Every structure is written in C-alpha cells, then in structure tokens.
Amino acid sequence: MIPVFKPDLGEEELAEIKKVFDSHWIGLGPKTREFEEAFAKYIGTRFAVGTNSATAALHLAVAGLGIRSGEVIVPAVTFVSTAHAAVYCGARPVICDVNKDTLCMEPDDLQRKITPRTKAIIPVHLGGHPCDMDAINDIAEDKGIPVIEDAANATGALYKDRKIGSLAKSACFSFHAVKNMTTGEGGMITTDDEKLAKKLYRLRWVGINKDTWNRAYVSAKYSWYYEVTELGWKYHLNDVPAAIGMAQLRKLDGLNAGRRRIVERYNAAFKDASWLRTPYEADNVRHAYWLYILRVNDPAHRDNLIKHLAEKEIATSVHFMPVHLHPYYQRFFKSKKMAVSAPVADDEWRRMITLPLYPSMTDDEVKQVVEGVLSFMA
Fold first, then answer.
1. 43-53 b/e with 16+ CB inside 10 Å = b?
2. Three-state SS across the chain?
3. Which domains does the chain have, with CATH numbers?
4. Residue 14 and which of 132, 295, 311, 361 are 20 to 30 A apart at CA?
C-alpha cells in the first residue's frame, strides 16, 4: 500500500539525537533553545517557543492573549485543534466559510462574522496554501482584533515573499510525524512580541518563571529557586525532538522542493481529466504542499474513488471534514444556540480527496497513483 505520508528521516537526525544522548540532558534544555533560535531565524521572527504539539501551541497562543470568554473566528475546514483552542480558553469558536479556490478562510465571510464579542481570528493555511493575509489583517486591524496564524500545514510556505509564521501577532506550527518537517511530535509558536514570548515561555512550563536549564546552568546562583507566577500547562518541547527538528529544519527547503516536483507531475497528468480539479496556487504565494487535495466535480464520485484507489493499493484521506459537522461541535453549537453558515465548505469538502505525497515517493509510486486515479472513470 502506498501511504498518504512518509517522514523523511536518516543519519542526520540520528547524529543530532546522539549529541543529546551524549550530553545526558534530554529534557527542556540547550538543544531546545538552539532549535527555537534557528526556527525563529528561518521564519523571520524575533522569538520562537517550542511546545509538545501544535494543539498545545494553539491553546497557548489563545491563552497568551488573555482570552477567557467571547468568540474566536476559525475556518470551517481545519483540524479540530483550531476550534478546540478557543473552547479550552472558555471562548466560543465561530465558523467562517472558506474560499472556493484555496479552501482557506474567506475574508468576505470573516467580515460578516465579526461581532463586538470577537476576541481573536485564527486563519488556517490549509494544506500549505497561504491565506489572503493582507485582507485578513486589514479586517482585523480595523477592528483591533489579534490574528493567530494556524501554520500547522504550511512550514516553509511564502506569502508575498514573506515566510508564513511572520504575518500576525503569533503563529503556530506542527512538527507531527507526517508534516513538512517532523520532530515525531512537537510544535512551535513564533512572534515578534517580546512580552508575549516571555509569557508563553512561562505558560508552556506550568507557569514557572525559570525552567530547569536556566536554573541549573544559565544562572547557577539560587539554582533551586523558582516561582509559579500564573497558571500554566506542561506543554514544553524537550531536547530529543528538538534534535530531530534541527536536522529536519536544515532539510526543509529540499523536502518541500521534492514535494513540489511530485505535485508538478500530478498536475501535468491530471490536467485533461475534466471530471476533477487539481490544487489551486495563487500568484502571490508559494504553496508548501503538505497536502495534495484533488476535488471531484461530482461529490458522488469521491467515496467510490477512495475505494477504487484502495483496491489498487493506494492509501488516501480527506483533509478535513468541516469542524461544525463533528458530533461534539454539533452538540456544542446547538447548546449555545449558535447558527453555523458555511455553504462553500459544506459543499467542497464532499469533493475532496488527499493523494499520497512525500519527498521520497519513487517514480513508480507516482505512476501507480496517476494510473489509479485516471483508471477510475475509464
């Protein structure tokens, strides 16, 4: 079976892990700080805060703004962590529809969904395609509302020659096993706001004002002493995944280039198939292509195509069922008497299918996927 994803790991990652093992410091320590500094430099922000997942990063990013009530606007098509982050903080997620081409947050609907209760906006760069950040930031700035980029799908993507993750108050990344770069599990928050960054460093370490590494080595005097200044969570990254992250970060641009080469082959192969649509890429962005999302013109074909490809030993997926269609959120919105209107998302998600895409795909595997898709209508 050709998988949907396959991480690219090798000797470089093992060499970095060995350095950590040899140091005998495997918790939150110098390698985590090295990775944070390297990642911030890559994205183009002043600070980066390592976490144990992107879900934790999103929770901290919302909590770091002091949000404990009100509403947070999220797109309909995203992984549920985007909406969960609002609920964790006592806020209500408000569902915004998506753009038909990009499947990212639609600015016109965003404008309609803003109310005096809106505390934050979380656009998601779905599948690696950047949102229309100028339009979103203009709307947010006009209303004085902070924006948090959900960049879990888009490490390495560009918007008008700027890295995704440098375009808002903060941004949250995922280093899950199948993402563009991986640490096994892990996440990161980037920001230029020093006050916010310092708060996030505390919140990710249960509210302690000095982590163990700083107490033990950075400021040896009073090394035992720390204070808990606020309620936080145990969300920190540690030096073992950070070591993997250092090797992966060096490889990231090459891995993304490998993804793009496969995407170009897919696009060329499917361009004359009138019954489906290939992924869209706007002129002013560079897609990171975490996902290759095909859309069938007839929604009735989607599940049959998935079954057809499985019979040909090709795994597929769907990214993502709209948030408001999950049973938990159906109950949530009903209990809050909140109406959800996202007609584009409701329609488009029924057409979506994610094909295998990973840098180490062989020519034969790409050919097998192409032939599998094209043979469906035949």
1. bebebbbbbbb
2. CECCCCCCCCHHHHHHHHHHHHHCCCCCCHHHHHHHHHHHHHHCCCEEEEECCHHHHHHHHHHHCCCCCCEEEEECCCCCHHHHHHHHCCCEEEEECECCCCCCECHHHHHHHCCCCEEEECCECHHHCCCCHHHHHHHHHHHCCCEEEECCCCCCCEECCEECCCCCCEEEEECECCCCCCCECCEEEEECCHHHHHHHHHHCECCECCCHHHHHHHCCCCCCCCCECCCCCECECCHHHHHHHHHHHHHHHHHHHHHHHHHHHHHHHHCCCCCEECCCCCCCEECCCCCEEEEECCHHHHHHHHHHHHHCCECCECCCCCHHHCHHHHHHHHHCCCCCCCHHHHHHHHHEEEECCCCCCCHHHHHHHHHHHHHHHC
3. 11-250 (3.40.640.10), 254-377 (3.90.1150.10)
4. 361
What are 230-252's pLDDT values in tens digits? 999 999 999 999 999 999 999 99
Q: Are 124 and 78 in contact (CB under 8 A)?
A: yes
Sorted by sequence, the CB contacts under 8 Å of residue 367 that are 6+ apart come out as none
Q: How many CB atoms lie within 10 A of CB 286?
A: 21
User: Do the Cβ atoms of 189 and 60 come closer than 8 Å?
Assistant: yes
Q: How large is the angle between the packed helices 30-43 and 239-270, nearest 10 degrees? A: 30
* Contact between 37 and 188 (Cβ < 8 Å): no
- In this structure, how many other beta carbons lie within 10 angstroms of the beta carbon of residue 160? 12
The residues pairing with 159 across neighbouring beta strands, listed in sequence order, are 162, 285
Q: What is the pLDDT of residue 298?
A: 98
Name the token pair of 122.
Answer: 């979380």
Radius of gyration (C-alpha) of the chain in whole angstroms:
21
Could you list the active site residues?
A: 179
For 25, how many CA atoms within 13 A lie in the half-sphere containing its CB? Answer: 14
pTM of the model: 0.97
* Closest by CA position to 47, among listed 219, 216, 213, 199: 199
pLDDT tens, 356-367? 999 999 999 999
